[in-house]
């Protein structure tokens, strides 16, 4: 497949969401192993174009060949024709634009929507802001940084009382001393 590569607008609104990373070369014809951060991993194959970060610039890449291979994913980019070119891409992050994601249902959120939100208890005590999330077997966990780091389970209706994306706030039923 032939394709073209173009540089995108890298304004704050156009910053891609990281959904994968090039893990290293696969074979000698320019293919690469891809580590997907989507759930399930195959979802990465549904997004086009991919945006690759090169020299601190995000570039849209069209004409990608990608498929499932064993337990992982492999891909070949249009400007990657041999193993040396594939090896040079190792560690390159793969992103997509927020508008490429499907809409969420009510009370459903993408992790990137929650990062940076202010977290407060039901009585208004500020706990900090969501720095990142952790996936556990039972539920996701907010890592909130404020006067100290807190791990707060993201359990709606029990711990998470409300999420207001417009106001950039999460209200939690949580003991601040915990």
Number of helices, where a helix is a run of at least 4 consecutive DSSP H or I residues? 2
In terms of DSSP E residues, the strand content is 35-45%
Reading side by side through the largest sheet, how are the strands ordered?
Answer: 1-5-4-8-2-3-7-6
How many domains? 2
CATH topology of the largest domain: Elongation Factor Tu (Ef-tu), domain 3
Q: Give the topology string: H per helix, E per strand.
A: EEEEEEEHEHEEEEEE
The chain-level structural class is: mainly beta
Q: How many strand units?
A: 14
Spans where pLDDT lies below 50 across 5 or more residues: 1-12
Main β-sheet: number of strands, strand sense, barrel status? 8 strands, antiparallel
| CATH-assigned homologous superfamily of the largest domain | RimM
- Rg over alpha carbons: 19 Å
Tell me, what's the shape?
Answer: elongated
Average of per-residue pLDDT values: 90
Alpha-carbon distance between the two ends: 55 Å
Q: Secondary-structure blueprint of this entry?
A:
Layout: E1 5-7, E2 17-26, E3 31-36, E4 50-54, E5 57-61, E6 65-69, E7 72-76, H1 83-88, E8 93-96, H2 111-114, E9 118-121, E10 126-135, E11 140-145, E12 149-153, E13 160-164, E14 169-172
Structure description:
The chain has 178 residues and is mostly beta strands. Helices cover 6% and strands 43% of the residues. It contains two helices and 14 strands. The protein has helices spanning 83-88, 111-114, and strands at 5-7, 17-26, 31-36, 50-54, 57-61, 65-69, 72-76, 93-96, 118-121, 126-135, 140-145, 149-153, 160-164, 169-172. An eight-stranded antiparallel beta sheet has the order 1-5-4-8-2-3-7-6. Strands 12-11-10-9-14-13 form a six-stranded mixed beta sheet. The model is unreliable at 1-12 (pLDDT under 50).
